[in-house]
Sequence to fold (325 residues):
Amino acid sequence: MIVTTKELFKHAYGKYAIGAYNINNLEQTVGLFRGNLGKVASNEEKVDNAKSAPFIVQISRGARGYSDKRFLEAMIRTAEEVFPEVIFAVHLDHGTEEACYDCIDSGFYSSVMIDASHHEFAENVAITKKVVERAHDKGIVVEAELGQLGGVEEDIVGSVCLTDPGQAAEFVEKSGCDSLAVAIGTSHGAYKFSGKQGLRFDVLEKIQAAVPKDFPLVMHGSSSVPKEWVDRINNAGGQLGASSGVAEDQYLPAAKLGVCKINIDTDGRLVWCAIHRESFRDDPKNFDLRPPGKTFMAAYAEYITHKNSVLGSAGQLESVRKSLG
Ligand code: G3H
Ligand code: 13P
Ligand code: ZN
Fold:
């Protein structure tokens, strides 16, 4: 069942975070849907309620352009038929105004992100407000962003600029957005922290205190970049540099401070890369795409169940279903 992120956030607020996972292709889609029902190696496995979780499927503009956006919609609709127990939102990640309108008009997306964070405050408010009006007319919810993450956001090269708590409150009020992505020290990609840095909980606490009660916050750039996966890639011929991400034990403390959505893309790419590199290293005569594809779907599903356990969303699916009535 496709729901809005608003419905998911209402259930999660202050207790746990919903995983927002980017997809680009079929294998990621199958692994993602399996993982959120606690299945691993096959679609036919029994649903594991203790591992089942609500989730958000994220589609970036890059993903929409990779093949054709209609393939993504068709895959997700099919996944919903194959896995009828799932509850999830379909969300546009880092949208421009134009991409938001396209998704709003498509009748498929239940949530869009307008990312005008690279504009100055008043312009960010104005653009976000326009998107909010169009989205709300159709019952679609809007995530906006204030502050800039380090690193590269699609084609926006940002320097770190943490969200100002006072501005966050004003932004929410003036723009009418339904959730707000905040910059609290993370960045996109595999190279987030050079030392022992982590999330800026001091800033997050101030933001939570400034915005309206129970207002959902979002954390981008939240992959944990597990050393295990980086090592597996490098042991199979990869050349990733020393990298680190958000420590998994920081997710729940962030959720307690109002973070309801945690964005994870890079970790999925690392799993994909490790599995494929190992597959070709270990079976150099193979040229069939299915053996690594099959291993990847299972590994990704398992990784998603792990992620949901550290986000606290594992085991919440049936309670979410009840809350939806
Ligand atoms: O924030 C960016 C996401 O990781 C999506 O990445 O634009 O390469 O699909 P992408
Ligand atoms: P990561 O690069 O840390 O996975 O972040 C993904 C993201 O924020 C998507 O919007
Ligand atoms: Zn992002």
Summary: The first strand starts at residue 18 and ends at 22. The domain at 5-323 is CATH 3.20.20.70 (TIM Barrel). The two ends are 13 Å apart (CA to CA). Residues 94, 188, 220-221, 263 surround zinc ion (ligand 3) (CB under 6 Å).
